[in-house]
Amino acid sequence: MSAWQIHGYGENEKLTLSTSSRIPAIKHPKDILVEVHAASVNPIDIRMRGGYGHSLFNIWRNQGGMFSTRSEFPLVLGRDFSGVVIETGKDVKTYKAGDEVWGVVNAQKQGSHAEYTVVSSSEVALKPKNLTHVEAASIPYVGLTNWAALYSVGELTPSNTRGQRILVIAGSGGIGTFAIQLIKAWGGDVTTTCSSESVEIVRDLGADVVIDYKTQDVQYELRQQDRFDLILDPLVSKKRVEYINYLKQWRNSKLVTIAPPFLRNIDTYGVVPGVVKSVGDLSCDVIKGAKDGCSVRWAFFTPSQKGLREISKLVEMEKIRPVVEKVYDFEDLLSAYEKLEAGHSRGKTVIQIK
After folding, report:
1. pLDDT tens digits, 236-276
2. How many CB atoms lie within 10 A of CB 220?
3. Could you tell me the CATH superfamily of domain 3-139+322-352?
């Protein structure tokens, strides 16, 4: 099969297209072999290309062998996909060959920027019937990252979100465009920030208040707003201490960040010192919010079959739609990485493989 691989960490020059890679084999009874029709490129792919998270991911790859010297290379990146089931493990009862599925690939596994990938059956769900593979591939990773941040950590649900005020930082990116739609589907009130070029996009997705950071003073505009029940910060903004000031006091309000320094600390300091450093960092964030009865929380992308199925329902009800900025051919994956790395995304970047 064809697969984009890296044989070392670095920039785009480390990515090479192999046309003679082996089709991955099913090794566990609950695994599924999927023919990938489309996959998206996410910021996590850019970071992992440079080595982000490799210390912890390699421990997981070696099944807990902290001191194993087995190399992770060649490594295939790509964290989500849409495709067709080719084969299933003997314990898989929910899916069969020929089913159209969408899903995610855990970071310690070989990824989806290839013609085939093997995933656990718990990491996929049936693809929404009203989406093409390209459209479907744009959603799983950002969808489940938002599910972790807003539902699991932020404690928003379809039954309690109505009337709550949520600030979404950077509303025009992959995370932001999905977050706006999920919150609106659940009845929340959304304020977001973006550039001038993206104002109409986020308004069209349902944002109630849009602050253009190119033409407006974001901090001034936020001070004019009522305080928020939850702030979603996908950028780990240097101004997050200021953002805490815009949370409602003593109302269980939360600032949730989805790019905490946990993996970076482990890469930099080692496993044990990195964990200790992360606990210290989190403690500092918690203390900053606690004085006003607020909380600062870290959220991590987590595979969730329940999340995928709930998101699929919202997509089929047309309460959430894919926001695809640009589609690249599989052979042009390097351009997709360059485009995403340049920043200022307005939606998702997708690779069409089949």
Report:
1. 666 667 888 999 999 999 999 997 776 777 778 787 787 76
2. 9
3. Medium-chain alcohol dehydrogenases, catalytic domain (3.90.180.10)
